[in-house]
Amino acid sequence: FPQLIQKYHEMIGKPYLPPFWSLGYGQGRYGWKNTGAVQGVIDNFNKYDIPLETIWMDIDYMDAYGDFTVDPNNYGGLGDLVKNLHKTNQRFVPIVDAGLKYGSDSANKCVNVGACIMSAFTKQTLVGCVWPGAAQFLDWFHPDAESIWHQGLSKLYSQLEFDGLWIDMNEVSNFCNGECPGSIGKQGSPLTYCPPLGPVSFFKNLRDPTNYHDSTEFDWYPALQGLGNLNTKSLSVSGYHYATNSYEEKYYKEYYLHNLWAFMEAKATNHFFKDVLKKRHFSLTRSQFPGSGYWTSMWLGDNFATWEYMRYSVLGVFDMNMFGLPHTGADICGFIWDSNQDLCGRWMQMGAFYTHSRNHDINQAVDQYPWDWGEKVITASKNAIRQKYSILRLMYTRFYEVHMNGGMVEQPLFFIAPGDATAYAQTPYQIMIGDYVMVAPVLYPNAEYTIPYVTNENWYDLFNKDQLYVYNPTATEGKKLSLKAGFDYVRLQFRGGGIIPFQDALGAGVLRTKQLYSLPTDIRVAPDHNGNAQGSMFVDDGDEMETIENGKYRYVTFDFSGNQLSVTTVHDSPDYFQCELVTTVTILGAANYPHNGACLETTSGTFVAMTPDYDDSLKVLTLSNNSGRSVHWSQVKNVVLGNTCQISQLVSQSSNKLQFITSP
Q1: How many CB atoms lie within 10 A of CB 519?
Q2: What percent of the chain has pLDDT over 70?
Q3: Dist. CA 466–CA 453, nearest whole Å
Q4: d(C-alpha 527, C-alpha 591), whole Å
């Protein structure tokens, strides 16, 4: 499976590397009335000590729902709110819709240069209807379209210094079925010809999509009978795009190109961050096409506040990872309908481990912030987010590897155990982060236990460190575990054979992902039944543009075998972060390893004694660098257990001279 996915990603374009902060927890709400309401939400996150990385703004902030505008009455001061977020290392991502408001500066520019999608019937600009009323749509095949988009985004950035963009309604969505009847050429109020949202009509006549002399606009019909009109709540399939030759004139029609609109919008948005803002790109799309993950992230769209939809989201995450969009997730607690304490609490626990993690709901639903459900969900939320932050370096490392090679950040268990029939048949909702850490969330109401299936290998509890399952040489499959699953912590299983970077964000009370750059990193080792393990760690500043292209990153691999942890620096960089310092190595299931100490050898041939601490009840060996000497992992050659370092091998701290960077 992994090799097949990598081949596919190599063909369509390997996923981009998102900024580190974008893996943190975000909060949105459709229906915030004004700037004060948003500030009140931020204040409550601080009051209840819940990590909050990003505020996500839905269309409420816009002036009459027009792109690139800010409501001066209700959202005066929003720009200052954004600046204050930045002062506390938080982020802001506003929504931008696909349709340009009829008569707006951007729409007029689009019309004047012919950079909008055109009507096949009137030969004028095609008019649809979305939130601002009548709207027109950029034609990304036109050479001026991207410039118009960038000008609009620059106007918005001058008002709100956003960190990323949420590009929505980009299927393209439309409140009319195709072109809005009677709308062509009108300059009056959009409400006079935008239809109310209502039942969808169905049509039965099949037309030739290349016959644009047919005046019957509303009867294109899909191949499968009974599924409705291709124009349903979408742009007219008869619309046509900018063309430069006879071939393009024939085939650059919305019928053929419809699914490329969001792909090209994401590409243009990526170029805005790179060419205009000169910063690392981040956008989140609702629609995609093969290869979109090279340009953007994606969430799973408008979902419902039900247990079924929470379970569906796991499968959606796996699908998007296969499709090359590993930075993904669903709206936590559900977007449509009212959530409840049990559902929202469990969804906050599971959703914390989406790579894109955001709670967001519709204006017609009840509030679903953690504090709305009492202390139970407050505790569940802040602990789950911090548990995710404890392995965020692992997740980010996996993003780097997928960016370089293709593959999945999150995957089903059977992808790493294809020969295990039980893993294939019974584990659709167990989430593997990389190859070694598994989340087995509670996905049913009133549950007190989670019952994950583990393959026939050593398995450990990642946080408690105890061994959950011991490899059985005579078994042909693994076992289902029964683990107490309260609202205080999420049970994460650590498969034997893995080495991961682990930071105790839970114990440190981390509130922002930036804090992780100065938090100590424990290299946590889970030996398999042969006593072997492997892993890696990637570090860059997390936000700067093109760190990989410019070589400003560090990537090291770990290999544990026998009594030795070997380290290989695949790529080094002159700048270091405190999170890369050698602090501790923790070996799980360490009953049969030497407990009297270890000696770390650097690549320059010097040595550092590691202080041992063995927990006999858990069978866990912790090795600590208490020498007072600062060493980062790219300087390490190996760590040998049972070797306490001879006096002649030790060197003074004064010989160690390093440059440290304490913030990304």
Answers
A1: 18
A2: 90
A3: 17
A4: 11
Query: What does the pLDDT read at residue 96?
Result: 98
| Whether the bond into 172 is cis, omega within 30 of 0 | yes
Active site residue 171: yes
CB 321 within 8 Å of CB 313: no
d(CA 388, CA 371) in angstroms, rounded, equals: 20
pLDDT tens, residue by residue, 587-632: 999 999 999 999 999 999 999 999 999 999 999 999 999 988 999 9
Q: Which long-range contacts (CB under 8 A, 24 or more apart) does 466-472 make?
A: 466/618, 467/588, 467/589, 467/619, 468/493, 471/496, 471/528, 471/529
Question: In the numeric block, which tokens belong to residue 582?
Answer: 């050698």
Give the closest residue to 594 by CA, choosing from 630, 623, 625.
623
Q: How far is CA 397 from CA 354, 382, 500, 501, in A?
A: 15, 23, 10, 9
Q: Is 401 a catalytic residue?
A: no
Q: Are 223 and 233 a contacting pair, CB within 8 Å?
A: no
Average pLDDT rounded to a whole number, residues 523-533? 97
Phi-psi region of 589 (alpha: psi -120 to 50; beta: other; left: phi over 0): left
Cα(first)–Cα(last) distance of the chain, in Å?
35
Instruction: Examine the residue annotation and report whether 60 is marked as an active-site residue of this protein.
Output: no
Count of CA atoms in the C-beta half-sphere (13 A) of 604:
12
264 Cβ contact partners less than 8 Å away, ≥ 6 residues apart: 140, 141
Active-site residue, selected from the candidate residues 146, 168, 342, 522: 168
From 71, 105, 302, 466, the catalytic residue? 302
Q: The tokens 């560090």 sit on which residue?
A: 554
Q: What does the DSSP assignment read for 161-179?
A: --SSEEEESTTTB-SSSSS
- pLDDT tens digits, residue range 59-113? 999 999 999 999 999 999 999 999 999 999 999 999 999 999 999 999 999 999 9
Catalytic residue, chosen from 97, 171, 265, 580, is 171
Element (H, E) at 483: strand 483-484
The residues, ordered by sequence, that sit 6+ positions from 549 with a Cβ below 8 Å of its Cβ are none
Residue pair 506/477 in contact by the 8 Å Cβ criterion: no
Task: Give the residue from 601, 386, 362 showing the smallest Cα distance to 506.
Answer: 386
Nearest residue to 205 via CA among 226, 186, 221, 181: 221
